[in-house]
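Entry for cytidine-5'-monophosphate complex. Fields follow.
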Amino acid sequence: LRKFIVAIDGPAASGKSAVSETLAVRLGFLHVNSGAIYRCATLLAIRNDLLDLQFKKNLDRMREILKETKITMGPLGTSPIKNENVNRPSTAIFLNGENVTDQISKIEITKNVRFLAKIPEIRAASIEKQRELVQSKNLFETRADSKVDGVIVEGRDIGTAVFPNADIKFFIEAEAKARAKRRFDELVARGLNVDINGDPVDYEQILEDILQRDQEDLTRTHSPLRKAKDAIVIDTSNLSLDQVVGKVESSILKRL
Ligand code: C5P
């Protein structure tokens, strides 16, 4: 079967993951969440006390650690943690076999990803991991009637920099307030609306974080967030998840 790459880009909390996770299960496509790789890198940096990458020594060590670490992604059913509060399929992220799905969603990680995502060497290492993952075994249940070996890759620069020749590209956007509301509701549903000290995180903090990440994603020198010229643009501000999934799915099916 030929590889069929779906690129889904968009700003923070635009619904890319929800759409990708739902479609991965529905179509039996592998789901590669590139944001999760930057988040895993951040978790590794914190664990190894290497968050300050201005020092070449730290950066070299960080690259080594990333190289040695195996990151895998599969349907939540393959993980020991089941989350009944999130009423849709979700992708589990494993770091050397450890399920870090919830840990990397926490605000401490989200706030610190920017320090790594702007460094070209870290982006290069992350892109290498993304390409490896695209070629790896699909842990999702592939459909017997599938005409392709499908992969959904989501992020900020997939259609522009990582897979500029993707078979189909989407750019999913929504107003910042709609994105903050959805992200806040999701964190509450998953019981993750607390910081490292156990203090509650409120909607205003989430909105502030999203606005700051938009700014950083758009102004970064290396691979900033841009719409690919050939991307199908979907504004999800006034659409339900089902409606967005429907639009993306029908565009994909037409291209198979
Ligand atoms: O998509 P998610 O919010 O999980 O991404 C976490 C962070 O990783 C983003 O704020 C962004 O700065 C960075 N990122 C990136 N390039 C990607 C995906 C994510 O720089 N392709």
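NOTE: The chain has one domain: 2-255.
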